[in-house]
Structure formats: C-alpha cells, structure tokens
Amino acid sequence: MQAPAPARIVEGGIPTEALVAQVLVAKYADHLPLYRQSQIYARQGIQLDRSTLADWVGRAAWYQVSAKSKLGEAIRYALTRWEGLSRFLDDGRIDLDSNTVERSIRPLALNRKNALFGGSDEGGDNWAVIATFIENCKISGINPHGWLTKTLAKLAAGHPAKAVGELMPWTAVG
Question: Which of 89, 92, 111, 115 could bond to 51 as cystine, CB 3.0-4.6 Å?
C-alpha cells in the first residue's frame, strides 16, 4: 500500500511549494515579471510558460486568503474565468497592450539603472563588459548562460589570452 501524496498548492502538479515560493519572491520581491522568469527557466532547459507561472501565482494567492472573504470571492471569480483572462498568453496574435517597444527595452533600462551601483570605476567597467557580452548573445540568438559557462571554462582551462577574441559571442554565429 502506498501512502497518499502530500497536499500541494498545485494539486496533481509538478511544482513544490519551494518552487512556487521562488516564483512569488522573484515576482514580488525582486520585481521580475513572469515572462522574464519564463525566459530564465528556458535558458536552463526548463519550459515553463508564463501562463503556467501565472496559474501558480493565482493558486498561491488563493491559499493565502479565506474563500469567503471579498478577496477570496474575487480570486475565485478570476480563476473560474482564467482561460479567457489568460488567452493572450497562449495566442501570440492577442496583445495585452500596445507598448511592445517599452517591454523590449525594459531589461536594458533596468541594467543601466543597476550599473549606477557598480561600486567603483572598475566595477562599472566590469558591468559594461559583461552586459555587452550578454546583450550580444541575446542579439545573436545565443544562450547567454551557456556561452558564459563554456567561455569561463575555456579561460579557466588556460585558453591563451592573446586568442580571447576566438571566444567572443559573435564568433559563434555563422
């Protein structure tokens, strides 16, 4: 006889409470939107659609409030209509808003703002170099995490400093 599975926030689902908590902390404490979290997980080879992450956030919120409270009623209302409310997440032809450009440059603006806190001139220079490499990877369709991992491993293994140009992201394209 097998013991019953433990209760989960997402009944019958894959995520543990720790994973759901990570998504919540990233969204609300670190201000990392769900579409960006989805991109981060994808770089790790984990396909989590933002609609899935949104469902987890909704379910976690449901568990935080009484079902009979006004907030509970509002969440229940949204959850029963979730398919229609989240249709834009699954159909690329439906746009939630018309500000595509702002969304696309937001990471650059955040990066620029964060660069103000480099700590020193050298810290600022380092930030600029790494940010340039990562943006070049993204423009070239290269996984930044994968490229950085391989490049750092090659440098640690003794790749000659005079041949560092061979490791640049733009040399991997073509």
Answer: 89
Residue 174: pLDDT band (50, 70, 90) is very low
For residue range 43-63, what is the model confidence (pLDDT) as tens digits?
999 999 988 998 888 777 777
Considering the chain, what percentage of its residues have pLDDT values greater than 90? 10
Task: Say how far apart CA 26 and CA 29 lie, in whole Å.
Answer: 6
In angstroms, the CA 98 to CA 109 distance is: 19
Total residues found in the chain within this entry: 174
Tokens of 24: 């919540």
Q: Which of the pair, 129 or 119, is modelled with greater confidence? A: 129
Residue 34 and residue 57 in contact, taking contact as beta carbons nearer than 8 Å: yes
**Alpha-carbon dihedral of residues 143, 23, 49, 110, nearest 10 degrees?**
-50
Q: What is the DSSP letter of 61?
A: H
d(CA 131, CA 111): 8
pLDDT band at 113 (very low <50, low <70, confident <90, very high): low
- Which residues are within 8 A (CB) of 4 and not within 5 positions of it... i.e. 6 or more apart? none
